C-alpha cells in the first residue's frame, strides 16, 4: 500500500466514496494513515478470509453511503425552505451614513472575509447581516443566527460547536452545532462581546483553521463566512482583559459602523412609514396622523 494508493484515497475522500481496503501486506502505520485519509474499513487478506464479514462490511458501507446521500438531499431541501423563510430584510434609510453602509454591504458581501458590525441596540445590525447574506454568493446556503443572551458557557459551547452523545451530563444525543449547520454558508454571531474568554479561544481557532471540534468529538473542517456584531467598545474590553486581541484581529477584517437612530434625521420618518405600512396590512387599517405630527 504505497504513496499512489494514499493519493487515490485523498481523491475518493473528495468524492465522498466508501473505500474498503483488502491487503495482506499493509503495516499498522499504513492502515492507520489510510483510515485517517477516509478509508471506510480495512480487511486483512489471510488464508482464512472471512467472506461473510466482508460482505457485511460492504452492505454497511452501501447503507452508510445511501444514508449520507439522503441526509444531503434533506439538507438541500432545508436550505431551500430556509431561503423561503428567511426573506431579505428591507434596509430603510437615505441619510449619508446609511448610504455609506449600503455601499459597504455590497462591497464586503462579495469578498469571503469576516465582517464586524458596530452599532447601538436597535440600529439594525441583524438587518445588515441579512443583507450581507443576500448580496453574497452564499445566498441560498445556510444562514445561521446566534443570540447567546442568557446561555452559560457549556450551553454556548454546545450551541456553537455541537456535542457527542454522552459528552457531558444531559448529553443524551448527538447535536450538530451552529457552525457545522452553517457549512458552505454564513453564521451571524450577535453581541460577540458577551462570549467568555474560553469560547473566544475556540472561536479564534475556528476562524483561523477553518475547523471545529464538537464536545467529545473529533475535529471537522468547515467552510463558513463569519459576521459579528456588537454594541460594545471591543478595544476597551481588550485593554480590560475581557476580550482576546488575537480574536479581534481576525474579526476586524472589514468593519461597518451603524449610526444611532437619533443622528439619522429624516430616516426616522421613513422607518415610521415602513412599520406603519406593515401594521396597516396586518390590522387592515392606516392612520397617518401620527406621522404628520412628527413632521
Structural description of this entry:
The protein is 48% helix and 14% strand. By secondary structure, it is an alpha/beta fold. It has a 5-stranded parallel β-sheet with strand order 4-7-10-3-11. β8 and β9 (219-221) form a beta hairpin. The relative contact order is 0.11.
Which features does this protein show?
14% strand; 2 domains; 12 helices; five-stranded parallel sheet; two-stranded parallel sheet; alpha/beta; 11 strands; single chain; elongated; 295 residues; Rossmann fold
Strand arrangement in the largest pleated sheet: 4-7-10-3-11
| CATH architecture identity of the largest domain | 3-Layer(aba) Sandwich
Helix content: 40-55%
Overall mean pLDDT: 83
Radius of gyration: 25 Å
What name is given to the CATH topology of the largest domain?
A: Rossmann fold
Low-confidence stretches: none
DSSP E strands, number: 11
Mind sketching the topology for me?
Layout: H1 3-14, E1 20-23, H2 28-36, E2 41-44, H3 51-85, H4 96-109, E3 115-118, H5 125-135, E4 143-146, H6 153-161, E5 162-163, E6 175-176, H7 178-181, E7 186-189, H8 197-209, E8 211-213, E9 219-221, E10 225-230, H9 234-239, H10 245-251, E11 254-257, H11 267-283, H12 289-294
Parallel strand pairs: 1-2, 3-10, 3-11, 4-7, 7-10
Antiparallel strand pairs: 5-6, 8-9
Tell me briefly what this model is.
48% of the residues lie in helices and 14% in strands. It has 295 residues and is α/β, with parallel strands linked by helices. The chain folds into 2 domains: 3-74, no CATH class; 93-263, P-loop containing nucleotide triphosphate hydrolases (Rossmann fold), CATH 3.40.50.
Amino acid at each position: 500500500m504505497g504513496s499512489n494508493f494514499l493519493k487515490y484515497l485523498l481523491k475518493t475522500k473528495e468524492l465522498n466514496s466508501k473505500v474498503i481496503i483488502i491487503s495482506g501486506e499493509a503495516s499498522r502505520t499504513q492502515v492507520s494513515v489510510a483510515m485517517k485519509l477516509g478509508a471506510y474499513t480495512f480487511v486483512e487478506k489471510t488464508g482464512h478470509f472471512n467472506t461473510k464479514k466482508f460482505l457485511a462490511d460492504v452492505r454497511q458501507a452501501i447503507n452508510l453511503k445511501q444514508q449520507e446521500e439522503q441526509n444531503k438531499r434533506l439538507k438541500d431541501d432545508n436550505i431551500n425552505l430556509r431561503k423561503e423563510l428567511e426573506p431579505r430584510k428591507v434596509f430603510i434609510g437615505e441619510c449619508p451614513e446609511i448610504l455609506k453602509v449600503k455601499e459597504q454591504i455590497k462591497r464586503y458581501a462579495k469578498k469571503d472575509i469576516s465582517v464586524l458590525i458596530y452599532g447601538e441596540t436597535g440600529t439594525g445590525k441583524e438587518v445588515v447581516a441579512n443583507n450581507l447574506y443576500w448580496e453574497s454568493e452564499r445566498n441560498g446556503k445556510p444562514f445561521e443566527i446566534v443570540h447567546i443572551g442568557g446561555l452559560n458557557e457549556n450551553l454556548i459551547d454546545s450551541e456553537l460547536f455541537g456535542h457527542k452523545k454522552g459528552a457531558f451530563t444531559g448529553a443524551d444525543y448527538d447535536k450538530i452545532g451552529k457552525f457545522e449547520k452553517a457549512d458552505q454558508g454564513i453564521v451571524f454571531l450577535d453581541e460577540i462581546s458577551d462570549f467568555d474568554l474560553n469560547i473566544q479561544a475556540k472561536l479564534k481557532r475556528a476562524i483561523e483553521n477553518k475547523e471545529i471540534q464538537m464536545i467529545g468529538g473529533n475535529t471537522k473542517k468547515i467552510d463558513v463566512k463569519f459576521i459579528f456584531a456588537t454594541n460594545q467598545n471591543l478595544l476597551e474590553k481588550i485593554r480590560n482583559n475581557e476580550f482576546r486581541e488575537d480574536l479581534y484581529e481576525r474579526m476586524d477584517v472589514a468593519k461597518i459602523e451603524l449610526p444611532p437612530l437619533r443622528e439619522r434625521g429624516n430616516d426616522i420618518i421613513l422607518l415610521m412609514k415602513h412599520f406603519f405600512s406593515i401594521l396597516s396590512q396586518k390590522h387592515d387599517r392606516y392612520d397617518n396622523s401620527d406621522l404628520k405630527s412628527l413632521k
